[in-house]
Amino acid sequence: MSELFVVGISWRTAVVAVREKLAFREEELPATLRGLVGKLPVAEALLISTCNRVEVYGVAKPGHDATGEVRRYLAEQRGVAAKDVADVLYDYRGDQAIRHVFRVASALDSLVVGEAQILGQLKDAYSLAGTNGTSGPVLGRALERAFSVAKRVRTETAIARGAANISSVAVELASRVFGDLGGKSVLVVGAGKMSSLAARHLYASGAQRIVVTNRSPEKAEALAEEIDGVARPWAELEALLAQADVVISSTGAREPILTKKLFKGVTKARRYRPMMIIDIAVPRDAEPAIGQLEGVFLFNIDDLERVVSSNLAERAKAAEHAGRIVEHEAGQFEQWLRSQAVVPTIRALRDRFTTVAETEVTKALDQLTRKEHSPAQQRELLQRVVQLVTNKLLHAPTAALREASPEDAARRAQVLCELFGLEPVTERDSQPPAIESATEPKRPDEVSS
Questions:
Q1: In this structure, are residues 132 and 288 in contact, taking their beta carbons and an 8 Å threshold?
Q2: Alpha carbon distance 53, 14 (integer Å)
Q3: What is the pLDDT of residues 382-423, one digit of tens each?
């Protein structure tokens, strides 16, 4: 039977400086995939490369353990000595590999438990494998099932509820203040990475207009271009505040720039309409006192981190339930995978039975078309066909039972009873079956006219 395996490196086993040594650029993936199945004892392969993991999901060719060669291949492709990454690479086979794939898809193995990005990345990797002809029936079934498990986990648990990073929390809090963010305007004060991330999340959630202001006009313009916004001069800060529904501030100033004195004029100009201040600067950009003004909702970095911590704690609880779902689904998939080992035998058995039956039926039909038969003769002919088919199908297993040693015969008899749902009868109660008759039944073409 072909065995599913995983070889990889992730945030759990290596720091980013090591992970990036094995990372692949998007344009390198097709050739690497083709090399996996073309040069190694690998029948099917998928490669996922993200900032937090580089993993090969594959199916080994029958009779091979491909993990060692895949380890060496990954190191070779990146120009790294295999011994230098031996301790940080992991590999799983069979049941362990299935569980790992399901956990990754369900975001139980992510740096941030429950994050949604990994599922999309995994789907992209699966699609790329299909495009390059390196996925097949086993890997395809495993990934399709993994996607279904991930959907079930997100539907039946709270693992993805509640923002799990600062920028996402900004959106969550803004939604609490405004409800619908559609049409709301955002002002980014400063040009920090955190503020640009928060602005991006707000824009994706419906905020329409993003304005950036910074003491350095060049930095303001660069950030505005990056987040599809508009740069405005620092001198217009008060007027820009009056027009903004959400303010994200991260300037690096040593003293607060968003003061109570400034905001008295701002709130008045806004006619005290609600506005939200997200101060993610350390030291803080906003004086705490502005949060006491009418219509002003102020959140600093500590407020956001408390929300993140609370949400992550809830996700951790949900992960226990999600883990049980993964275990159940993995068990179901393992059962399906094991059943595939007997598929060739089932197919051969079906073909054998079909061939015997079709051969005798063809002969009987030939008899019926060559001569006229009375209803009684037709009935006799059909009975003989059934008897011939039965005898031929039972000849091999009957011989195997009779020629075996007593111990083997008992074991084989038990297996046959289990396979065919038989209830053995005692010798005293049994009647000699047709196959035991000394005379072979007449063939259909021997039936008298």
A1: no
A2: 9
A3: 888 888 888 888 888 888 888 888 888 888 888 888 888 888
Question: CATH classification of 4-161, choosing from 3.40.50.920, 1.10.600.10, 3.30.460.30, 3.40.50.1260?
Answer: 3.30.460.30
| Phi, psi dihedral angles at 442 (to 5 degrees) | -60, 145
Give me the residue spans of the domains in the chain.
4-161, 166-308, 344-446
Residue-wise DSSP of 11-67: TTTS-HHHHGGG---GGGHHHHHHHHHHHSSEEEEEEEE-SSEEEEEEEEPTT---H
State how far the Cα of 437 lies from the Cα of 166, in Å rounded to an integer.
Answer: 84
The whole-model pTM stands at: 0.61
DSSP state of 330: H
Antiparallel, parallel or unpaired: β 296-300 and 42-49: unpaired
Distance, C-alpha 238 to centroid of its chain: 49
Beta pairing class for 246-249 and 275-279: parallel
Contact 2, 102 (CB under 8 A): no
Q: Which residue has the tokens 């993993």?
A: 55
For residue 33, the tally of other CB atoms under 10 A from its CB is 25
Q: Does residue 417 carry a catalytic annotation? A: no
Assign 434 to helix, strand or coil: helix
Residue in the block written with tokens 């094991």: 338
The encoded tokens of residue 289 equal 């006192």
The active-site residue, picked from 16, 31, 51, 410, is 51
